[in-house]
Amino acid sequence: MLEYFLLPNLTIDKQFFTNKVIKQSESWGHFGTGRFKFYSGMPDDETLDYLDNTFKNAGDLVSKVLFNKVKANNIIGPHTDYGRGCTINIPICGDFENSSLDSYEWSGPVTVVSPDEDIEEQEESRFYPHSEIDAQINYTVPICFDTRVPHGVTNQTKEDRFILGITFHDKFEVKNIKEMYENGELLV
Prior knowledge:
Layout: E1 4-6, H1 14-24, E2 29-31, E3 38-41, H2 45-52, H3 58-61, E4 62-70, E5 74-80, E6 86-93, E7 100-104, E8 110-113, E9 124-127, E10 133-137, E11 143-146, E12 151-155, E13 161-168, H4 174-182
């Protein structure tokens, strides 16, 4: 089962980020095909500066920042992420009340490599096509979970779903981030 917690005190300027992702998302790389396509884009310096002013000691905590998009009426099946661990997903825009982060059981994986030829180092994720769903988690505020555990997204809504994903260095687990959040050590 996917361990997670919500961060209602982590707020961002949603209009600022909505304008940014709508303009940039058409040039993002992707995994998958058809209704199972997942888009990912790199942040610009303005986004990184914004996060430096949001997280205490961001440079010591954060290892990777990515924007992600799941198109309307799409599903991202059970997978684990390449080069990511404990992550906070910050909702930017989309129908988050009616879409979900899905938790899956462990099963035998299949390797999936990004078809994006512009990526210098091909990113590899693991897909778990024989996994059963454990839970569907609806969230409208940021959520912290571990992307090394099989998870996916169901977006059976009429809106594209955009998030800003903040990944922490490998040594951090969900319980560490939760403790920092509750003790006032995570956010500025």
